[in-house]
Every structure is written in structure tokens, then in C-alpha cells.
Amino acid sequence: MGLLSDLSNITWALITVMVVLILYFHGPSYSVQTVRTAPSILTSFGIFGTFLGIAFGLMQFDSANIESSVPVMIDGLGVAVWSSVVGILGA
Fold first, then answer.
1. In which element (H, E) is residue 24 found?
2. Tell me: the pLDDT tens digits for 4-57?
3. Buried b (16+ CB within 10 A) or exposed e, 30-63
């Protein structure tokens, strides 16, 4: 079980979008305006992913069956953490 092999498809999709944005901001569109706006956009995208991951985790949480709901919630928190990490690193 590797660190990256356990990530869900949603996490990979968010990471891919954010990496594309990072490469775009640091590559062909690099300018003074990009330097001003890219950190805000990437940080906002990371925060969006955080709330999206928490929402996915809570959406399938069943308080009547906590034992089987915890792994689903942990998967949602994984999306939240990884989107935050990539957003902050890109900014």
C-alpha cells in the first residue's frame, strides 16, 4: 500500500486539475498579473477541495452504523487533505 496508490479517483481528478493550473500559471501565462492572482486561485481551489472532500465524507456517513461509515469518511478527508496540500504547494 503506497501513499499515492491509495488515493481515490476524486482526489486524483482534483490533483490533476491543480497540477495543470500550476503548470499553466508558472509556464506560458507567467506575468506580473499571474504572480498576483495565481496564489489566490490555487489556495481557493485547495480550500474548495477541502470542503468538497469533507462533504463527500459526510454525505455517506451513517450515524446508526458508525463502524462501517468511518472508512468512507476517512476517504473524504483524504480528498480534503490532498487538495489542500497541492493548493498550498502550488501557491
1. helix 9-26
2. 566 677 778 877 888 888 888 777 777 788 778 878 888 887 888 888 888 877
3. eeeebeeebeebbeebbeebbebbeebbeeeeee
The pLDDT tens digits of the residues spanning 56-69 come to 778 877 778 778 77
What DSSP string describes 26-87?
HTTT-SHHHHHHHHHHHHHHHHHHHHHHHHHHHHT--TTSHHHHHHHHHHHHHHHHHHHHHH
- In angstroms, the CA 39 to CA 7 distance is 25
Residue 84 is predicted with a pLDDT of 79
- 3 confidence band (pLDDT: 50, 70, 90): low
Helix (H) or strand (E) holding 17: helix 9-26
Residue 81 CB burial class (10 angstroms; 0-12, 13-18, ≥19): middle
